[in-house]
Write a structure and sequence with these properties.
With 62 residues, the chain is mainly α. 85% of the residues lie in helices and 0% in strands.
Length: 62
């Protein structure tokens, strides 16, 4: 399902009504920080999984 311009405008209007214009920059900033932390956690989890699989494959080769 893909959101078009009208749907995004409606969502933006609802958010603006719920939180107000003054709180919107803070909300966007915290959402951006949360997304950054989420990506960082995903990357770290992938690195740990790669390290575990390489450890497992090295152990089974001997």
């Amino acid at each position: 399902m893909r959101l078009g311009t009208p749907e995004l405008l409606i969502i933006l209007a609802v958010v603006l009504l719920l939180f107000g214009a003054r709180k919107l920059p803070d909300l966007a900033r915290s959402l951006g920080a949360s997304a950054k932390e989420f990506r960082k956690g995903i990357e770290q989890g992938g690195e740990e999984a790669d390290a575990q699989t390489s450890d497992t494959s090295e152990t089974s080769d001997t």
